Amino acid sequence: MDPRRRVPRTDTLLADPRLAGAVRRLGRALVKQAVGEAQERARRGEIRPEQVADAAVAALPEHPAGLRPVVNATGVLLHTNLGRAPLSAAAVAAIAAAAGPTDVEFDLATGARARRGRSALAALAAAVPQAEAVHLVNNNAAALVLVATALAAGREIVLSRGEMVEIGDGFRIPELLRSTGARLREVGTTNRTRLADYADAIGPDTGFVLKVHPSNFRIEGFTGAVDVAELAGIGVPVVVDIGSGLLAPEPLLPGEPDAATTLRAGADLVTASGDKLLGGPQAGLLLGRRDLVERCRRHPLARALRVDKLTLAAVEATLRGPATPTFEALHARPGELLARARAVARTLAAAGIDAHAVPSQATVGGGGAPGVTLPSAAVSLPGHLAAALRTGTPPVVGRLADGRLLLDLRAVPPEQDDLIVAAVAAQARRDGPPVAG
Ligand SMILES: *Cc1c(COP(=O)(O)O)cnc(C)c1O
């Protein structure tokens, strides 16, 4: 009989307990799709009819969401394309706990409505005592939009030409600010701006002076910018976009601004991202003078930019909980990274794979500290493995250098070393038997 006739029917396959369980976990549509594809493979003769159920089970996704967890072996700590900061286990647990009904806006003691996200806001306020008030929005771009709208719509924002920054993927801060209806008053030049340039531009129409941290580039040579401390007291609010979300100075990144120091220097408002060096979820932080934060918070636009309970839970756990994976990666010791790379390479080499440990250079990434390199260590592999590892399970993303694939371990938590070993070994097995042995 034609084996194509023997391909099991969909109903029969869906009665398989493994697939029936998957329907409860993943939903009917995804399971039917996996079943349909496995039937198709059998009709093409790629698998035998008896293998259809197994093939469908093997092809089922882990979750009904398309996002796949990836091992970040790029050596870029905050890789925007890989979702920036990985959350701590504490933050993940807080998200899971907040997923159902929570007291996000409810006082359990009185049964009355309460301030939304008050404990996350209290954690942020406690982390930066220099701020009179704090607020959270969706991301730093949202924080800037809210500040520009609430404090400068129809008026002017004074900004240095040296700080007209494009953050990435065509996202330009000046365009974002103009979209709010504020006018930009550009002062100074690309390389030098003086206090007098700001002072000359300030008038009755000024909403605020904005300083933007050049978080993804550096200009060198004949340069000059005006410090926050010099601008403080210029007569209008001074708003500083510090970018990376460091709340206090980080000795390893002396060039990176932090919220506490910037406020102490006299900034009236600071904006920052939650998912860069702060190591939390995507969020926008607004910290500073109480009257200005209140104007932002009470503006109608604030409602459109507000964060959900999952973000509030993750921000609070990031602030109150143990050191974040981003902090751990930043502070990993080069000697320990090299020892890990050697151990991974040794295991792979013992399986006949061309692997060895090499010193490497990691970076913070688009999230901050341009020009800073962090000494690191990598497992060097044949370059042709790059695509296979990227499309494997879990995907492992490294970087190519001189025809070799480097898996840099600085952004990889130590507990993922075994995943890397397994992924590379599985790939090498697929490529054929090892040459040696
Ligand atoms: C990253 C960055 C932004 C954008 O932050 P998002 O949280 O991604 O919206 C804005 N300004 C600066 C200086 C940045 O570094």
UniProtKB/TrEMBL annotation:
GO terms for cellular component: cytoplasm. It catalyses: L-seryl-tRNA(Sec) + selenophosphate + H(+) = L-selenocysteinyl-tRNA(Sec) + phosphate. Its EC number is 2.9.1.1. One of its GO terms (biological process) is conversion of seryl-tRNAsec to selenocys-tRNAsec. Keywords: Cytoplasm, Protein biosynthesis, Pyridoxal phosphate, Selenium, Transferase. The modification N6-(pyridoxal phosphate)lysine is found at residue 276. Residues 4-43 form the L-seryl-tRNA selenium transferase N-terminal domain. Its cofactor is pyridoxal 5'-phosphate. The keyword Methyltransferase does not apply. Its main location: cytoplasm. Pathway: Aminoacyl-tRNA biosynthesis; selenocysteinyl-tRNA(Sec) biosynthesis; selenocysteinyl-tRNA(Sec) from L-seryl-tRNA(Sec) (bacterial route): step 1/1. InterPro entries: PyrdxlP-dep_Trfase (IPR015424), PyrdxlP-dep_Trfase_major (IPR015421), SelA-like (IPR018319), SelA_trans (IPR004534), SelA_trans_N_dom (IPR025862). GO terms for molecular function: L-seryl-tRNA(Sec) selenium transferase activity. It holds the Pfam family Se-cys_synth_N. It is an enzyme of class 2 (transferase). It comes from the Bacteria. It is found in: Cytoplasm. Transmembrane segments: none annotated. Converts seryl-tRNA(Sec) to selenocysteinyl-tRNA(Sec) required for selenoprotein biosynthesis. Belongs to the SelA family. This is L-seryl-tRNA(Sec) selenium transferase. The gene is selA.
